[in-house]
Amino acid sequence: MSDVLKVPVTVITGFLGSGKTTLITQLMRNPDGKRLAVIVNEFGDVGVDGEILKSCAIPDCPAENIMELANGCICCTVADDFIPTIEALMELNPRPEHILIETSGLALPKPLLKAFDWPDIRSRITVDGVIALADIEAVASGQFAPNLAGVEAQRDADESLDHDTPLSEVFEDQISCADIVLLTKSDLANPAAKEVAKDKISKISPRPLPMIEITEGQVDPRVILGLEAAAEDDLAGRPSHHDGVPDHDHEDFDSAVFAIDDLSTPELLVDRIKRLADEERILRVKGYAVIAGKPMRLLVQAVGNRIRTQYDRMWLTNEPKQGRLVVIAEHDHLNTSAIEKILAG
Q: Of 29, 42, 277, 304, which is least surrounded by CB within 10 A?
């Protein structure tokens, strides 16, 4: 089959809370005339991002074109999840003209690129490009490496030590695999932070990378779609810390889902999540909460102690009116009893 007939796929990667879902929402609203489909891969079984995107569905990207793979890394479940999902999208009528894949914030993009060489799909799709999102303030402050001061002290004391943490390796792999980097939350960052973030990223990338500052996911789709990178044929130019490792999993990270009682105000939940970040080294929290007297559910998205909440929709009559949060931490730092106690207040 000719390459012209292959459906282009854009892989959107980025660290926890970097703005991937916001970007895809904007692309759905402004698809540059393309009929889109979206695959969302989440870490944890509460499908927050998929539901957000489905609530934004439009004729050029209807809800049936948005598919969610939860509770498992997309590149670790190729045969069971990824291939059948791609095949299902390709069977839609009309067929999507462009597919967006939002990876988990913990995912390594390169193993996903390797999946595009599977016989069942390699003649039908191609990786148009890999877009990496990077939160300017987080990169500038080194938040992709927890306890950076302690890491630096160890490195200064013994230069032979491997001072890379799992978080820094994930971030570096995402940047090294990218064709374009989108620097997100530009409106919140000062000029000095922007320069620091750009300098760090340029030192990570094996080749010069375009870096574009964006706010609230707003970018001209012509800039990031239609790159024709055929990234699956350029694996050697996208180095990874995990090159040579046959398989990988997320043993560096743990996640758990917690049911939470109804709350009187959103501020109570914000305070408790801040405690999780400060006392339990929690990386990411996302999910929903019930606020007493409010008919709408409260959407919660947190990276460290940076927390955003909003009422996203009415509770449905056929769904349990129960708050649930996915909590993600580095391996051996997910103390479920301590987390339950903090969330209970």
A: 29
